[in-house]
């Protein structure tokens, strides 16, 4: 038996699961994470953020994604999703049933969709379009049971403009994604390196209208000799003023990407005391970074 344990029949597909807040994977992936901006692949760092505020979010799980959507926080950990008020008290939430229909790997991002809906994405590029369902009828609650282990009385994943699906990518086919953002017309995903491929970094652009791939690119960037964007480990992205802010927990750097030029137009360092950056978003015009470190969910405001 010992003879066979290291032989893989999946070949290129034998890709280990990505690094999550609730399940670190550095060893399996063969990636050594550090918080040193000097090890970032970029030839030049344009800007440096300083922490102006730090708070601990009392949430009973390691938060893997946090965003601020329609005046409330939306957090996720594995298959749990919670909507929080401005004091981080849970207002409502659900637990996804990952195995119904298109299996969804742990959640790597949640974005607003249409006027009152959301899309959650798993690291395997399977997704669910869902909505809040505050006045659910008994019949509806029974119908929504398919998508949720808990919360089918408050949320819906079945119905008009809702449901599961899987995104088809070409260049990103053999890579997990660990982040998602949207400009309102498209959603953007970014790959993370893995045990089979430490060099690839691809942004996939998908139309929200029909969830069909509209383009994929590796951004042009001014890099140090011998370095690739695969040195990044992008755990979160946010969109502002026509640019994608891609947060790398590795080397504590934010790559600002212009999706039209397909280019990294700016690089920003953030403090090395933020050791496990998981989420980036703008609130009141300021950058916020969530890090799960020392067993706590820490939210930093930076300037």
TrEMBL record:
The protein, known as: Putative ATP/GTP binding protein
Species of origin: Campylobacter jejuni
SUPFAM superfamilies attached to this UniProt entry: Calcium-dependent phosphotriesterase (SSF63829)
